Amino acid sequence: MYSRILVALDGSPLAESILAEVQRMAAGSDCQVRLLSVKELPPPVEATTEEDERLLMLGTAPAIVTSPATHETRDQAIDSIRDEAMEYLDEKAAPLRAVGINVSCEVHFGAPAEVIKQVARDEDFELIAMATHGRSGLKRLIFGSVASQVVEHAGKPVLVVRPEHLEG
Predict the structure, then answer these.
(1) Which end of the chain is flanked by fewer CB atoms within 10 Å, N or C?
(2) Other beta carbons less than 10 A from residue 127's beta carbon
């Protein structure tokens, strides 16, 4: 039915509940499936000044003082986050690949709903598949819902699964 499906995973078991449905849809077809994880970038780090170093030596420095080498450390943190997310995605892709589904994995950084919508548009996916954490009411208003933002603004069909144990 669909030839290109984008599957959004956030690393939680709840999000993974979409995988069984994607497997049912794609098994035995030429469908291409992309597993996508969107991560937040670590906050930028400011280089220290000589004044920061002087305050640190006097014991009156602010709670967090960074060193010029922390820019490299941030890059290393980004690489570590990307590597960990890719390892996770490869692990989740393995059962799909085992039944012959063509699966690729990708990690992006940014706001999840925005990145999901952009990747779906830019790479012409026909369907976005994701799970919802099942928030409603005040919790949804406060925390927002990536799934609802994608459904409302993607301009593509979106398959949303709510994990069974959340249904009441």
Answers:
(1) C
(2) 21
What tokens appear for 129 in the block? 């598949």
Under DSSP, the state recorded for 165 is: G
Pairwise CA distance, residues 80 & 116, whole Å: 21
For the chain, domains (ranges, CATH) are 4-166 (3.40.50.620)
Residue appearing with tokens 């699964």 = 161
Evaluated on CA atoms 160, 152, 43, 142, the torsion sign reads: negative
Amino acid at 111: A
Q: Are 7 and 23 in contact (CB under 8 A)?
A: no
Please write the tens of the pLDDT for every residue from 53-99. Answer: 555 556 555 555 555 554 567 788 899 999 999 999 999 999 999 99
> Whose structure tokens read 């937040």?
40
Query: Would you say 88 and 126 are in contact if contact means Cβ atoms under 8 Å apart?
Result: no
Q: Which residue has the tokens 């709840």?
A: 14
- How does pLDDT run across 104-153, given as a tens digit for each residue? 999 999 999 999 999 999 999 999 999 986 655 554 444 458 888 898 89
